[in-house]
Amino acid sequence: MLRLPTFRYLQPGSLAEALRMKADAGPDGMFVAGGTDLYPNMKRRHQEPRTVISLMGIPELQRLDGWNVGTCVTLTSLSNLPTFQHSAVSTAARLVSTPLLRNMGTLGGNLCLDTRCNYYNQSYEWRKSIDFCMKKEGHICWVAPSSPRCWAVSSSDVAPVMVAIGAEYRLAGPKGERIVPAGRFYHNDGINYLTKQPDEILVDVRLPAPEGWDAVYHKLRRRGSFDFPVLGVAAWIRWDGTKVGDARIVLGGVASYPQEIPEAGAALRGVALSDDSIRAAAEAAYRPAKPMDNTDFDLSWRKQMTRVYVTRALQELNARPHTARIAE
Length: 328
Fold this sequence. Notes:
- The chain is an alpha+beta fold and about 325 residues long.
- The protein is built from twelve helices and twelve strands.
- The strands form three sheets. The protein has a five-stranded antiparallel sheet with strand order 4-5-8-6-7, with no helix packed on it. A four-stranded antiparallel sheet has the order 9-10-11-12, sandwiched between helices. Strands 1-3-2 form a three-stranded parallel sheet, covered by helices on one side.
- A hairpin with a 2-residue loop joins strand 4 (about 65) and strand 5.
- Helix 10 (about 275-285) runs antiparallel to helix 11 (about 300-320).
- The longest helix is centred in the last third of the chain and has 21 residues, at about 300-320.
């Protein structure tokens, strides 16, 4: 049985108090929300904070105010809101792991999920036997041994949707607050995968009002009731009458960040969403998708599934009634 190491647990009641506690703890302190990512990592000695600062007692992080969602709202709550119009966000939240983990896991935790890899997400003893990896204590990426960077994969379900719909994140830190577009919150690097600083707190997510657009999320995994995505597809369409005014296709599970494919969105703009345009967008998404051999399934098959899942996502959007098109 893997056991947690000894650590000090703090429970601040406000953002200011949490930031002070982190300043006092220094590099040995870490923030935690639901803990479904951090605590397993601590058991495997991926992360070893001596002080853990819980964010779950901070009222501001639990708020749901219009289109602003606090980052300590649980995934269960996010997926079950009956009037929540951002269906792709709710769908992505509902597809995370199991009901028990969704009851604990939070929006912020999933957005900041540690990148994953078959060579990294193992016990300390297993990793030691291969001389560790670049992401923790080693000097080589076992996925691509000649590479100077880590290729661990972004496995968040909600993050690709946030990038696709153009959400914004509000962060608070020692130097004050800042707003970051979702697409700029992530780096394509398995180690430094966030632009958020360790002493900053992700406070809430600002969602765009649902005016003239729609989005969907599709997920590929081995077990439909548990596993991380080996491919996630978030598709966003803004309608201009009967044609596509703008579009974004974002892939999860194939890179170290939610990967937007601009060529796929460009293939849809200015035309009707038809079989031909859907086929063109799916092909455009397929070409740059380069899944690595560090998650489940054969990587060449996963690349083929990019075309299939982009097609399915766009077909679902096309089958929905759209106010903008009906009004036209």
